[in-house]
Amino acid sequence: MPSLSLFMIVKNEERCLADCLDSVRGIVDEMVIADTGSTDGTVAIAQRYGAMVFSLPWADDFAAARNACMAKATGDWLLMLDADEALDAAGARRLRELADRDGAGADVIEVIQANYVDTSASWRWVACELNDPLARGHAGYVAVPAHRMFRNRRGYYYRGRIHEIIEESVRAQGGRIRREAVLVHHYGYRSGLDGYDAKVQRYLAIGRRKAAENPNDAKAWYEIGACLQGSDEPECEEALRRAVRLAPSFPDAAIALADLLFKRGDVVGVRNALAPLSKSEPAGSQVKLRLAHVAMFEGDMKTARRMLEAVLAASPRLVVARLSLARVLDLLEDQDGVRAQLDQAAAIAPTAPEVRKRIEAFQARVEGEAAFCAGDILGALRLFAAGLEADPFDHVLHNDAGVAQNALGDTASARACFERALALVPWFHSAQVNLEAVKPGELASEQENTNTREYWNAVWKAEGADTWRRYPTCFHMVCEVIGAGKRVLDVGCGLGVLAAQIRDAGNVVYGLDISDAAVRAMRAAHGIHGVAAQAPYIPFASQSVDVAVATEFLEHFQHPGAVLAELARVGRVVIVSVPNNLLGHEDINEHFQRFTAASLRALMGQFFTQVELAEFIDDFVTSAGRITLPTLLAVGVNT
């Protein structure tokens, strides 16, 4: 009877190795494990299962390590697993049966690597059944075909420093492949696990070496882009573009590039990236889905609906398409259709977080609108706020919240809500009408509106790195309040002088400024990422940062309450500073507000349960001369 050997490479896997070995101990005749430098109990665990363990020096090359381990296996058939993977009982039995039948006419068994993740937007995502114990609480997995069991001593070997594959050598040797519906359950494919971020950085470093050694390898460049996805790194876009230039029909790279471009609103770039995939059968639904998103972005709801319905006719269990269709139907004011799509998405993926949150938001909206009609304005506003916490991209909820705020007499907050609704859906008629109704009067004729991108681009270009806007005492106090180990958003970051100090104090910091020139200059000078956007709207999720900072910022707005409302939404703690006009006001055309300690405390008190205030004078010398600036610093916290 043919024998079956398990072979693995491991390092510091005591958390999961026993589960992996338990899942195969009844089907393999031999376990061969290469340890690449564990400092925990990994080796002892492997030896407890009777594995032959040997030490293998790590050379930043996964393929070399796998090949070295495979060379020591003696079985007729080989099974490759990673320590954070496991087989279920039925899958294990099936692989043993195939080994006993000497592959049933095949040389290689292709299985499905089930990478468990909760986001249904991932390509090839499959929803798990409710209460499936193998899911371990996950909503679904990304299904990736993989050659995991194959004949020994057939000239098969792994290629690639990282994301190594054996498929190329199998093809070169003419290996016969049998596809089986066996799942290899992979539980380490998500952020939040101990060491995950370090693992990504390790993979990125190896991936860069791989691309440098093989500059014409599209897959190598794609892997760099995949490691950097979501980081807003220019390197991510460049890597994906190189992958697509080398292999225009490489679906993973083209779709990843299209997604990146869509986030910045480059719909022409999206279409160009997807064009080579138009006739690709495996990627067809994903291409149509993204083109439907482009149609939504452009306001062509009928086309978006038609395309999404076509996607669902071909792939009825594609949850992300159902959620997208629900959004389109919302824009078409078909509330029954929205509910039907959300209910179907929940039936397919009952534990998917985004499905649950969309349903929570929709229900909060319905209940909030009913409360508003019944005269319970404050209760309605609470429901709308709860809905936006679940789904901050619901344009109707933003509009509804604005209507409620206006009914309570807070026109500044109402205006901010309507502006957020229009930022999401620029053609949203109700929000357009409502915003027009609460617009403030025209600026006083003697004061120019300086809250424009053009104005501040010119300011930062003129002042450059030698800017006088440094406020040493204020910035020092801000850094002391923040401490270390926080996620911080610097709103009105300018050239990043404060952001760099916050970062150097041991924090992760992001910037936001109306000036795109300033954001670029901050990135070039300090390596800090920023977003160009016009306050009061702050394009960050609710409570997404530990601290939101806005120094010398509120005084630039006619309605600073709208800015504070956004700061309070985004940050758990909010720090602001303004000129103290009780001590000696500035007469600067840029400023629309003059604050005293009393007025700043009163304003902060509208948004925070706890407010601390400090008064001081920032006295410093710049190339423009000596600056003496009476200043108020306020810290707001909701307890």
Notes on the structure:
With 639 residues, the chain is α/β, with parallel strands linked by helices. It has 26 helices and 16 strands. Helix 6 (196-213) runs antiparallel to helix 7 (218-228) and helix 11 (284-297) packs antiparallel against helix 12 (301-314). The longest helix is centred in the middle third of the chain and has 21 residues, at 353-373. The chain is globular, with a radius of gyration of 29 Å. The termini are far apart.
Q: Report the major sheet.
A: 9 strands, mixed
Rg, nearest Å: 29 Å
Described by the principal axes of the CA atoms, the overall outline is globular
Beta percentage is: 15-25%
| Proportion of helical residues | 40-55%
Unreliable spans are 441-447, 582-586
**Overall mean pLDDT score?**
88
Q: Structural class of the helix and strand makeup?
A: alpha/beta
Ends distance: 69 Å
Number of strands: 16
* Alpha plus pi helix count: 26
Characterize the quaternary organization of these chains.
single chain
